[in-house]
Amino acid sequence: MFERFLEPLIDTCFAFSVEGTGGNPAAVMVSKTESTQAISLAKTTASLRGMETTLVVPSSQANHLAKLRFFVPNAEMA
């Protein structure tokens, strides 16, 4: 799945929207690896855009497809 993405892919989606309009903007970043650079870029994206950012990386667990890390402008959520 992750092999087809350019490194990294950053897009914006809207949570709680109606027919694709309104709602809360959130950046979604897909990366092939959970590198320090990818984590730093996700944190920077959250702080500069003032929005939540989700980092999606391949999971290290065989029974999971992906791992998500969720950042708000000033911190990473547990």
Give the SSE layout.
Layout: E1 9-15, E2 24-30, H1 36-49, E3 52-58, E4 66-72, E5 75-76
Parallel strand pairs: 2-3
Antiparallel strand pairs: 1-2, 3-4, 4-5
How would you describe what is shown here?
The chain is an alpha+beta fold and 78 residues long. Helices cover 18% and strands 38% of the residues. It is built from 1 helix and 5 strands, in the order E-E-H-E-E-E. Strands 1-2-3-4-5 form a 5-stranded mixed sheet, with helices on one face. The longest helix is centred in the middle third of the chain and has 14 residues, at 36-49. The radius of gyration is 13 Å and the shape is globular.
Q: What is the makeup of the main sheet?
A: 5 strands, mixed
What is the first-to-last residue Cα distance? 25 Å
Number of helices: 1
**Order of H and E elements:** EEHEEE
Sheet-strand content, in percent, reads: 35-45%
- In spatial order, strands of the major sheet run 1-2-3-4-5
Mean pLDDT, to the nearest integer, reads: 83
Care to count the β-strands? Answer: 5
Structural class: alpha+beta
Query: What's the overall geometry?
Result: globular
Radius of gyration: 13 Å
Helix content: 10-25%
Q: Can you tell me the residue ranges where pLDDT is under 50 for at least 5 consecutive residues?
A: none
